[in-house]
Specification:
- The protein is built from four helices and ten strands.
- It is α+β, with helices and mostly antiparallel strands.
- The model has no long low-confidence stretch (mean pLDDT 93).
């Protein structure tokens, strides 16, 4: 009979290297319930009348909701959450700003194909209404080569699955790296699924963070020729 791991190893551990994180912020009901009611009413007014959609399509507003006064409270919450993420991962920064914010209004049958948010550091989504049957978001493994060898698994988990579906709910904000692929399955509910997407980037990136991180050999300074 072969020895068991307990017979051989004094200790075992798992070290999660290069983790891909999704940060989840659930607002208190007394915060998100009145705010969501106001914002849903505002969206209705801003998008009325909505154009007729073919089956399976959704409405998306222009990307300027961060400039709409009625959305100021939500934008402040988004920036606060983004600063919390940057502090948690120990990023050295002076400020973070929202570069775009837009509403996604999904009728029954509408979803979002896999995509990323280029030219930003963080992306996020906040849920104004997430009915049953439209209450998940899917994140995709960024390691494209992971399926090169793909044995059958006993049970899907965080170590062996190329996608992960995360439950969503009204009042939930999720932040993640802008390069992380994600998608949304089709809404199966007659009620609209309504969310607000946000992008975050560092102001004046080239001036404050774009320089090389290593000092290099100092160069002698010479006077200019006259």
């Amino acid at each position: 009979m072969p020895p068991s791991p307990r017979d051989l190893f004094a200790e075992t551990s798992v070290q999660a290297l290069f983790p891909t994180c999704v940060w989840v912020y659930d607002l208190k009901p007394e915060v998100h319930e009145p705010m969501n009611r106001r914002l849903l009413a505002t969206l209705d007014a801003l998008t009325d009348p909505k154009p007729v959609l073919p089956p399976g399509r959704n409405w998306q507003t222009e990307q300027t909701l961060h400039e709409v006064p009625e959305f100021a409270e939500l934008m402040e919450i988004g920036v606060l959450a983004a600063r919390g993420v940057l502090d948690a991962i120990a990023v050295k920064y002076t400020d973070i700003m929202i570069t775009g914010a837009w509403a996604n209004i999904n009728p029954k049958g509408a979803g979002h194909p896999p995509h990323i948010h280029p030219n930003n550091y963080l992306s996020g989504v906040y849920y104004l209404h997430a009915p049953t049957g439209g209450d998940s978001i899917t994140f995709h493994d960024p390691r494209k080569q992971i399926d090169l060898i793909s044995p059958e698994v006993k049970k899907p988990n965080v170590y062996n699955s190329p996608i992960h579906m995360v439950k969503i709910q009204s009042g939930r904000m999720m932040l993640f790296p802008a390069w992380l692929g994600h998608s949304v399955v089709a809404n199966q509910n007659q009620e609209l699924r309504v969310s607000v997407s946000l992008n975050f980037m560092f102001p004046n990136f080239a001036e404050t963070m774009g320089q090389p991180k290593w000092p290099g050999l100092p160069l002698k300074r010479t006077g200019g020729s006259g």
